[in-house]
Amino acid sequence: MANIFLLALTALLIENFVFVKFYGICPFLGVSQKTDTAVGMGLAVTFTMTIASALTWSLYHFVLKPLHIEYLETIAFILLIACLVQFIEMFLQKAIPSLYSALGIYLPLITTNCAVLGVALLNIQNSYNFIESVIYGFFAGLGFLLAIFLLSLIRERFEFARIPKPFQGVPIALIAGGLLALAFSGLKLSF
Amino acid sequence: MLVLPVYFEIPLTVLVLAAVAFLFGVLLAVAAKKFAVEKDPRIDQIAENLAGANCGGCGFSGCAAYAKAIVDGEAQVGLCPVAGADANAKIAQIMGVEVKQPQRMRAQVMCSGNHSTANYKYLYRGLADCHSVSRLGNGPKECSYGCIGLGSCVSACAFNAIKLENGAAFVDYDHCRACGMCVNACPQNLIELVPFESRYWVACKSKDKGAVVRSHCQVGCIGCGICAKNCPNNAISFVDNIAHIDYSLCNQCGLCASKCPRKIILDGLKSDQIIEVETAL
Question: Domain for residue B6, yes or no?
Answer without folding.
Answer: no
